[in-house]
Amino acid sequence: RLLRFLATHEHTSPFRHATLQFEVYAPMMVKNQWIKHWVSSAHLEEHSGWNESSRRYVTEEPIFYVPEWRSAPDNRKQGSGEALGDPQLAGDATAGTLMRQTIEAGVHNYARAMAAGLCAEQARCFLPAYALYVRWRWTVSLQAVIHFVELRDAAEAQWEIRQYAKAVRQLAEPHFPESFRAFGTEEQP
């Protein structure tokens, strides 16, 4: 009852004392939305709650996200519409073909730059950024985790980040079931 009272009346400081740490591997476009959840993550302090692999010191095989294509929504703002399969774009090229060609060219040029002795921090510029998987550690309060799940597992959130929000919930909720119930966060279908 106390947890529900605190959550309902927005007395959330007790939920900031429990912390969780996640190692995440996601496309950069997902990371760019996720990074906005800095509440109680101590990003401006010396001991940062966000630590991302930059490909400057550690090299790993570049892996890319190739989406299942969706239409733009009717209002042409954020979000997406129906699944499209592999739509035709320019001429006879499909979205999937152009995406694969872009990735292959970027990886090829990245490898050439590294082999030629270019520094890793510049060679990585050849990689198609938004589809590139990146790795980071996120140390965060329980309050911030619940807030992240509430926003990013909502029906209007981008499909890709919703999948990660569901995974965060599955990892965190078993450890703090009463806190999740207190905030009334319901898992979305």
CATH architecture of the largest domain: 2-Layer Sandwich
Widest sheet: strand ordering: 1-5-2
The total strand number stands at 5
Number of helices: 7
Bin the strand percentage: 5-15%
User: How can the largest sheet be summarized?
Assistant: 3 strands, antiparallel
| Total domains | 2
What is the residue-averaged pLDDT?
A: 82
What is the rounded distance between the termini?
27 Å
What is the level 1 CATH name of the largest domain? Alpha Beta
Q: What order do the SSEs take from the amino end to the carboxyl end, as H and E?
A: HEHEEEHHEHHH
Q: Which radius of gyration do the C-alpha atoms yield?
A: 20 Å
Percent helix: 25-40%
Q: What name does CATH use for the topology of the largest domain?
A: Gyrase A, domain 2
Low-confidence stretches: none
Helix-strand category: alpha+beta
Overall 3D shape: flat
Description:
By secondary structure, the protein is α+β, with helices and mostly antiparallel strands. It has two domains: 1-61 and 132-189, Gyrase A, domain 2, CATH 3.30.1360; 64-131, no CATH class. It is 38% helix and 14% strand. The strands form two sheets. A three-stranded antiparallel beta sheet has the order 1-5-2. The radius of gyration is 20 Å and the shape is flat.
